[in-house]
Amino acid sequence: MRVAVITQEISNIFESVLESGHEVLGIVECAPAKEPNPFLKAIGGVFTGIYYSLTSNPLNLRISSKKLKIPYYYLSKGDSESFEKWIKNLEPDLLIVYSMSHLLKENIFSIPKFGTINIHYSHLPEYRGPAPLFWEYYDYVLNPGVTLHYIDKGEDTGDIIFQERVLIRPGEKLEELNQKLSFTGIKLLLKAMDTIEMGNIPRVRQSVATPTVRARKIKPDEYNELIKWSEWDVDRVFHFLNGTPKYHYTLLKNSSLHKLGLKIKILGKEKCNISGYKVGKLYKENSKQFLVCKDGKIYIDLIFSSSHLLSWIYPYIS
Questions:
Q1: Would you put residue 138 in left (φ > 0), alpha (ψ -120 to 50) or beta?
Q2: Ramachandran angles phi, psi of 64, nearest 5°
Q3: Confidence class for position 318, pLDDT limits 50, 70, 90
Q4: pLDDT recorded at residue 1
Q5: C-beta of residue 65 within 8 angstroms of C-beta of residue 27
Q6: Does pLDDT of 56 surpass 70?
Q7: Sheet holding 23-30: strands in order across?
Q8: Can you name the CATH fold of 2-212?
């Protein structure tokens, strides 16, 4: 089957499509919701090229597609007419979407013979929207899931092809959950690609209503306010923090430190008497730093992380 892929970065899911045995006709890189400064992006592109010339390891989709000799397209929001022409010229049987910053229009998702499918990290119709994992951690959901569904005019409302739940432990870190979801998503995607190619097209219509909030992206300054320090016990706060490392820096007095590659590392938790402390505040005593909850403390450390620094500058090298 002839397929094209729309995504934002190199991932296990992207690589699984390349290795699936199906013919990949095109790679589409979806621009981030907020376009980076063009000058800084140009500088980042130079360093990315140098890195590739030294290591032969592509850091981004543009270089990966060049290495694989697969047509590449950079998709900005609002770029519909030229992208429509590009996709039509490819003539894919199926368009696969994973991680997009905006919704596809009907003039695009209706082009492929077998339609356009998307991998969404929730058990739809739960948590429709761009940030399902954030809100699943927020609501203390211990059985999230993955859904493979067709794209339609709505936001994550298309017919379901396959879906499966995964189980997580209280306090499980986001990177561990991502590994589980990625593994499950790849399994469902490969199964769906083979099934669709054989002409068996499973479709289960979603209910219009959703039992959960819309999984919107939050603004950084909302993060601390969303944590119910006076209501949640230390176990629940610990769980939420472990699932939302992207926003940890907002808990620091000097929140700009994250741009230097510094991040909060969650060390552990302790149920204890917190008399004399104010909930939701960061303290340092005897060389230990901790956040105070209504019934205990969450211990943290401030560390340098090269991967954290890379995640901040990634928009400039993509």
A1: alpha
A2: -60, -45
A3: very low
A4: 96
A5: yes
A6: no
A7: 72-75, 23-30, 2-7, 94-98, 116-120, 145-150, 160-165
A8: Rossmann fold (3.40.50)
**280 is written with which tokens?**
């939701």
Residue 229 to residue 295: CA distance in whole angstroms: 10
pLDDT per residue as tens digits for the range 104-156: 999 999 999 999 999 999 999 999 999 999 999 999 999 999 999 999 999 99
Cα separation, 92 vs 28, whole angstroms = 13
CA–CA gap between residue 184 and residue 166 (Å, rounded):
8
Tokens for 83? 């992208």
Residues 206, 216: Cα–Cα separation, whole Å:
20
Report the C-alpha gap between 147 and 6 in whole angstroms. Answer: 17
Domain with CATH 3.40.50.170 in the chain: 2-212
Q: Are 149 and 117 in contact (CB under 8 A)?
A: yes
- Scan for tokens 């047509």, then name that residue: 71
Confidence of residue 317 (pLDDT cuts 50, 70, 90): very low
- Residue 130's contacts (CB-CB under 8 Å, 6 or more residues apart) are 101, 215, 216, 217
Mean confidence (pLDDT) of the chain: 88
The whole-angstrom separation of Cα 81 and Cα 217 is 28
CA dist., res. 149 & res. 124, Å (int): 9
Q: Exposed, middle or buried by CB within 10 Å (0-12, 13-18, 19+), for 258?
A: buried
Q: Which percentage of the chain shows pLDDT scores above 70? A: 84
Question: Residue written as tokens 């992206």?
Answer: 217
